[in-house]
Amino acid sequence: MELIENQTFYHIQRKVPWNQSPFWKEGETHFIGKDKNPFFKTFDFAYPTIESALWHYMKAVRELLFEEMRKDFFPSLPSRTRCLWVMPDNKETIQYCSNELNVEGLEHKLVKLSLTGKLFKANQQHLEINHIISFDEMRQKAFKYWSGSSGQSEAETEYLFEGFATVLSVE
User: Fold this and answer.
1) Which of 48, 64, 96, 166 is the Cys-Cys partner for 29 at CB 3.0 to 4.6 Å?
2) Contact (CB, 8 A) for 140 and 73
3) How far apart are CA 114 and CA 112, in angstroms?
4) What single DSSP character describes residue 130?
5) pTM for the whole thing?
6) How many angstroms separate the CA atoms of 165 and 50, rounded?
7) Comparing 59-68, 69-78, 80-89, 92-101, which segment has the lowest mean pLDDT?
């Protein structure tokens, strides 16, 4: 984790059923780290089919175990429940994140931000759920994630931020 001051990063905001918050506007400053973020709000949202519910609850368990490990062993790091996911000024990374978020067809904005606060880089490959694993195996993945190893490529490294975010521009 590093403390940053007035560093430029990007964030993708999108309109989805569990997040109807207004898009941020140029000049606004937002404090990140106190309230539940839109990603974590997905777990308050019901899914219509058994198949999607199973995936939903597997992700919920993962997030709860990752948060447990963060609180127990890495309490100074930004929480996945309250952070803002940001991206460096890198076209490959922005495109990768757009694809991962399935923004095609959704109302969305690319927001350029000036950040001051805590920034943590992690390897999102530790988040993969491609088969059912035990809680202890998931905790092992969480420990590796919070240890801060980077992804195989810059695009696969995720950045978690808590602090003050000032909107520089909105695309």
Assistant:
1) 166
2) no
3) 7
4) S
5) 0.88
6) 38
7) 92-101
